[in-house]
Design goal:
Layout: E1 2-4, E2 8-15, E3 19-31, E4 36-37, E5 46-51, E6 57-63, E7 66-73, E8 77-85, E9 97-106, H1 113-118, H2 121-192
Antiparallel strand pairs: 1-9, 2-8, 3-4, 3-7, 3-9, 5-6, 5-8
């Protein structure tokens, strides 16, 4: 995505609890002479802030023009990940465009291939099995989180349905009351004018 030099850009990532989130990014600065983005942005860094659903800041750190950040969620929900350059230019003069390449992986686990190659076949199978078990645990957490979200949505839908039903009943009672009052008022009017 593109961003201004001092502009903060945020994304929302829905993450289950106890899940590792890894983000890789790279910043490129627009070169006005060449009319293209430079391969790197030397001297420019990114300030990364991660906020939990409880509004608690999980990560707030300054990184270089290219880097990796990671955090572990402790609450399920929408985590806000914000990126802002550390440009020292004043806002009025910071007109340079930035291109930010961002790759976020949720539930990733580090799997060291070199360690697998160094061990014998039994250990290789054992490490791969542990990695598969970690992935299964992550999928299980993800399913539980989605199940909780679906249950919350269902409860909200049922409450809304119930409220609509009661609102329809109240409207019907008001309509009947107004109708009876109009009939009584018209009857009293006709009696007073001696038309009936």
């Amino acid at each position: 995505f593109h961003s201004g030099e001092r502009e903060e850009k945020c994304i929302i990532e829905d993450v289950p609890s106890d899940t590792l989130v890894i983000g890789n990014y790279k910043v490129q600065r627009w070169d006005t002479r060449k009319q293209e983005f430079l391969e790197s942005a030397p001297g420019l860094g990114m300030f990364v802030t991660v906020t939990a659903p409880s509004a608690e800041i999980l990560l707030s750190k300054l990184y270089g023009p290219q880097g990796t950040f990671s955090f572990t969620s402790y609450l399920p929900g929408e985590h806000i990940i914000c990126l802002q350059s550390n440009s020292t230019r004043f806002v009025a003069f910071a007109g340079s465009k930035l291109r930010i390449h961002l790759d976020i992986r949720v539930g990733e686990h580090f799997f060291d291939e070199s360690a697998v190659q160094a061990k014998d076949k039994v250990n290789e199978v054992n490490l791969r099995l542990e990695h598969i078990i970690e992935k299964i645990n992550h999928v299980s957490k993800e399913q539980n989180y989605e199940r909780e979200r679906e249950e919350k949505f269902r409860k909200t839908s049922e409450e809304t349905n119930s409220n609509i039903l009661w609102w329809a009943i109240v409207q019907t009672l008001i309509l009947i009351s107004v109708g009876i009052w109009q009939i009584k008022s018209l009857r009293d009017f006709f009696i007073s004018k001696k038309l009936v």
